[in-house]
Each structure stands twice: as C-alpha cells, then as structure tokens.
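Allow me, if you will, to draw on your knowledge of protein folds for a short while. Thank you for your consideration; the sequence and its tokens are set out here:
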Amino acid sequence: MPKGEMRERRRTATRSDTSRAVAFSDAVIAIVITLLVLDLRPPKAEPGGLLSALLGEWPTYLAYAASYIYLAVIWLNHKAAFSRIREMDRGLQWANLGILATLALVPWPTAVIAETARTGNLEDERVAVGLYAIVGALLCLSWLVFFSYLARHADLTKEEVDDSFFARERPRALIGVVLYLAAGTAGILIHPLVASVIFLLLPAFYGFTSHGLDHGPGFLRRGVEHGDVGRDTSSRGTGDPGQ
C-alpha cells in the first residue's frame, strides 16, 4: 500500500462526526446552568420580614441573570460554530473540551460576586470582579484557540463554509480576552461597578455576533468587508486561511 494512502487512512481513522461532541457539550452547558440555581436560596428572615429579606438578595438575582444570559450566549455561539463544522479530529476535540472546561468555572466567580455584594465590603468586591475577569478572559482565550485551530484546518468545515470564516472569527475572541482583563483592572483600580458594566456589555456583543461578524450589526459587517478587500483565500485544507 502506498505511503500516501496509508497516511490518509490513519488521518480519517482519527476523525468523527460532530454529533457526540455536540450532545456532550449541550449536556455540560445544561448542567452548568443548573448549578447557577443552587445559589438561589431562601433568605433568613424574621416573621413578617420576608419581603425585605428577599429584596436584600438582589445581588444574587442579578448575578444569576447575568451568568444565565452569558451561558445562553455561549451556547448560541457554540451551536453556530458547530453548524459549520463537518467533522472532528483529536485537536478540535481538545479545543472544544477547553471551552467546556472554562465555561464550567462560570458559577464559581458568579457566586463570589454575589456573596461580596451582599456583605458590601469594597475590597472583597474588587477581588471578586478580578476573579470574574480572569475566568472570562480564560473562556475567551479557549474560543481563540478553537477558532485558530479551525482556521488552520479548513478541511474540517463544511464545503459551503468560506475557508477564511474562522480566521475572521479570531478577533471576536481576542476582543473578549482584552476587555475582560481591562474590566478586571478597572474594577480593582477604579470601582467594581465599572467592571460590572463591561461584564454585562460583553455577552450582548457576543449575542449579536453569535453567527459571526459577517452576520452581526451593520457597522460590524462593514468593518469585516473592508478588512477583506484584497484578501487572497487559501485553498481548502492548506495553510492558515487567515494569513
């Protein structure tokens, strides 16, 4: 058997369709969302004081809502990405597991932020937003690895998908890494509320662009189209389409 044919057989033997990866990912995201609810506990209240005690738990409700929306946006982005993927290899499976590992951390800093907001200690709040920023940056970094892998292995995507699509997705992830770290720094040096505003705006950005910058708001599409002028698209499966 020719060596080229043997290498092709070994390559295809390590590949699989996306169904199991999608099912596993959906299950992990569902479990992580469920874990958020565990922080919604009945407050301790004196007889007749339940309403004020419930209202006093507003940091927990806000943290739950923000993290639920964030995880929902992650699921939308994950679903949109896999709608363009034809098959998986080992590298892409590990990249996907990296996303799941980091998103599973989201309930932890969420609970920390809710607890520190309840106690009202400013120094603890600064530490809490710093922790949340680190987790958010790690999550965006895992997406950057995922997009970069697909940009270098366009043969894993469906035939109708532009070879440069995932190369163009990398700036979305990089924006998140930079802004989460900037938000954490601002929250520590200025005030935690500054970080909280950015934490709320970032999921909105990723929600609007879940199907890619090409399908985002008009001003983002114009920026992508302008950046694509003169781009020479590489042939499928060879090199990095984004280079």
Observations:
- Residues 227-243 have pLDDT under 50 and may be disordered.
